[in-house]
Amino acid sequence: MSQFTHFNKQGRAQMVDISNKEDTVRVAVAKTSIEMKKEVYEQIVRQEIGKGDVLAVAQVAGIMAAKNTSNIIPMCHPLPLKAVDIVFEWKEVQYFYKLIIEVTAKTKGSTGVEMEALTAASVCALTIYDMCKAVDKGMTIGKTYLVEKTGGKSGHYIRE
Question: Is the model's pTM score more than 0.90?
Protein backbone atom coordinates (compact mmCIF):
# COMPACT_ATOMS: atom_id res chain seq x y z
CA MET A 1 0.00 0.00 0.00
CA SER A 2 1.41 3.38 -0.97
CA GLN A 3 1.96 5.97 1.72
CA PHE A 4 -0.20 9.07 1.84
CA THR A 5 1.95 12.11 1.06
CA HIS A 6 -0.39 14.86 2.22
CA PHE A 7 0.47 14.37 5.89
CA ASN A 8 3.56 15.66 7.68
CA LYS A 9 5.51 13.92 10.47
CA GLN A 10 2.87 15.01 12.99
CA GLY A 11 0.08 13.52 10.89
CA ARG A 12 -1.25 16.94 9.94
CA ALA A 13 -2.12 18.16 6.46
CA GLN A 14 0.63 19.46 4.21
CA MET A 15 0.98 20.52 0.62
CA VAL A 16 3.38 18.03 -0.97
CA ASP A 17 6.82 19.34 -1.94
CA ILE A 18 7.14 18.88 -5.70
CA SER A 19 10.22 21.08 -6.14
CA ASN A 20 12.46 18.12 -7.04
CA LYS A 21 10.06 16.55 -9.54
CA GLU A 22 10.84 16.76 -13.23
CA ASP A 23 8.61 18.74 -15.57
CA THR A 24 6.82 16.45 -18.01
CA VAL A 25 3.80 16.76 -20.27
CA ARG A 26 0.81 15.54 -18.28
CA VAL A 27 -2.63 14.75 -19.59
CA ALA A 28 -5.73 13.61 -17.71
CA VAL A 29 -9.12 12.56 -19.04
CA ALA A 30 -12.16 12.49 -16.74
CA LYS A 31 -15.80 11.66 -17.34
CA THR A 32 -19.12 12.22 -15.67
CA SER A 33 -22.74 12.25 -16.82
CA ILE A 34 -26.10 13.80 -16.12
CA GLU A 35 -29.42 12.06 -16.73
CA MET A 36 -32.61 13.96 -17.48
CA LYS A 37 -36.13 13.69 -18.83
CA LYS A 38 -36.68 13.82 -22.58
CA GLU A 39 -38.32 17.24 -22.13
CA VAL A 40 -35.10 18.73 -20.73
CA TYR A 41 -32.97 17.10 -23.43
CA GLU A 42 -35.21 18.58 -26.14
CA GLN A 43 -35.11 22.06 -24.59
CA ILE A 44 -31.32 21.95 -24.32
CA VAL A 45 -30.88 20.79 -27.91
CA ARG A 46 -33.33 23.40 -29.23
CA GLN A 47 -31.75 26.04 -26.95
CA GLU A 48 -35.09 26.78 -25.30
CA ILE A 49 -33.84 26.91 -21.70
CA GLY A 50 -34.52 30.43 -20.43
CA LYS A 51 -31.04 30.89 -18.97
CA GLY A 52 -29.31 30.51 -22.35
CA ASP A 53 -27.24 27.98 -24.30
CA VAL A 54 -26.81 25.32 -21.62
CA LEU A 55 -23.89 23.43 -23.16
CA ALA A 56 -21.96 26.58 -24.04
CA VAL A 57 -22.31 27.93 -20.50
CA ALA A 58 -21.44 24.52 -18.98
CA GLN A 59 -18.36 24.27 -21.19
CA VAL A 60 -17.08 27.67 -20.06
CA ALA A 61 -17.89 26.83 -16.42
CA GLY A 62 -15.92 23.60 -16.72
CA ILE A 63 -12.89 25.38 -18.16
CA MET A 64 -13.08 28.02 -15.43
CA ALA A 65 -13.31 25.26 -12.80
CA ALA A 66 -10.21 23.54 -14.16
CA LYS A 67 -8.32 26.84 -13.99
CA ASN A 68 -9.43 27.39 -10.38
CA THR A 69 -9.07 23.88 -8.96
CA SER A 70 -6.31 24.84 -6.54
CA ASN A 71 -8.62 27.49 -5.07
CA ILE A 72 -11.25 24.93 -4.03
CA ILE A 73 -9.27 21.70 -3.41
CA PRO A 74 -7.00 22.54 -0.46
CA MET A 75 -3.88 20.49 -1.26
CA CYS A 76 -3.82 21.02 -5.05
CA HIS A 77 -0.93 22.96 -6.50
CA PRO A 78 -1.80 25.84 -8.84
CA LEU A 79 -0.99 24.63 -12.35
CA PRO A 80 -0.18 26.39 -15.61
CA LEU A 81 -2.79 24.61 -17.72
CA LYS A 82 -1.87 24.31 -21.38
CA ALA A 83 -5.26 23.03 -22.60
CA VAL A 84 -8.73 22.06 -21.40
CA ASP A 85 -11.20 20.46 -23.80
CA ILE A 86 -14.76 19.37 -23.01
CA VAL A 87 -16.77 17.08 -25.27
CA PHE A 88 -20.46 16.20 -24.91
CA GLU A 89 -22.18 13.02 -26.11
CA TRP A 90 -25.92 12.34 -25.83
CA LYS A 91 -27.29 8.83 -25.24
CA GLU A 92 -30.93 7.82 -25.15
CA VAL A 93 -31.49 5.31 -22.36
CA GLN A 94 -35.04 3.87 -22.16
CA TYR A 95 -37.13 6.66 -20.59
CA PHE A 96 -34.49 9.36 -20.22
CA TYR A 97 -31.47 10.99 -21.86
CA LYS A 98 -27.92 10.85 -20.58
CA LEU A 99 -25.30 13.45 -21.39
CA ILE A 100 -21.75 12.09 -21.17
CA ILE A 101 -19.24 14.81 -20.32
CA GLU A 102 -15.58 14.13 -21.11
CA VAL A 103 -12.84 16.53 -20.07
CA THR A 104 -9.21 16.46 -21.19
CA ALA A 105 -6.77 18.65 -19.27
CA LYS A 106 -3.12 19.14 -20.19
CA THR A 107 -0.09 20.82 -18.64
CA LYS A 108 3.68 20.67 -18.66
CA GLY A 109 4.88 20.64 -15.10
CA SER A 110 5.86 18.72 -12.02
CA THR A 111 2.44 17.47 -10.91
CA GLY A 112 -0.56 15.92 -12.63
CA VAL A 113 -3.82 17.39 -13.89
CA GLU A 114 -6.20 14.70 -12.67
CA MET A 115 -7.93 16.99 -10.16
CA GLU A 116 -8.37 19.71 -12.78
CA ALA A 117 -10.07 17.29 -15.19
CA LEU A 118 -12.29 15.82 -12.46
CA THR A 119 -13.23 19.26 -11.14
CA ALA A 120 -14.06 20.53 -14.62
CA ALA A 121 -16.31 17.52 -15.32
CA SER A 122 -18.12 17.93 -12.00
CA VAL A 123 -18.71 21.66 -12.39
CA CYS A 124 -19.85 21.16 -15.97
CA ALA A 125 -22.57 18.73 -14.78
CA LEU A 126 -23.52 20.98 -11.86
CA THR A 127 -23.89 23.93 -14.23
CA ILE A 128 -26.24 21.93 -16.45
CA TYR A 129 -28.26 20.97 -13.38
CA ASP A 130 -28.42 24.60 -12.24
CA MET A 131 -29.55 25.87 -15.63
CA CYS A 132 -32.23 23.19 -16.08
CA LYS A 133 -33.54 22.58 -12.56
CA ALA A 134 -36.66 24.68 -13.20
CA VAL A 135 -37.73 22.07 -15.76
CA ASP A 136 -36.51 18.92 -13.94
CA LYS A 137 -35.26 18.85 -10.35
CA GLY A 138 -34.94 15.06 -10.64
CA MET A 139 -31.87 15.11 -12.88
CA THR A 140 -29.15 12.75 -11.69
CA ILE A 141 -25.44 13.44 -11.90
CA GLY A 142 -23.65 10.15 -12.53
CA LYS A 143 -20.34 8.68 -11.57
CA THR A 144 -17.34 10.94 -11.98
CA TYR A 145 -14.07 9.18 -12.64
CA LEU A 146 -10.59 9.36 -14.12
CA VAL A 147 -10.44 7.61 -17.50
CA GLU A 148 -6.76 8.01 -18.25
CA LYS A 149 -3.66 9.94 -17.25
CA THR A 150 -0.18 10.20 -18.69
CA GLY A 151 3.09 11.73 -17.53
CA GLY A 152 4.91 11.84 -14.26
CA LYS A 153 6.58 9.26 -12.04
CA SER A 154 3.56 6.96 -11.77
CA GLY A 155 3.37 6.69 -15.57
CA HIS A 156 0.42 5.87 -17.76
CA TYR A 157 -2.90 4.91 -16.16
CA ILE A 158 -5.95 3.64 -18.04
CA ARG A 159 -9.17 2.79 -16.18
CA GLU A 160 -10.17 -0.82 -16.69
Answer: yes
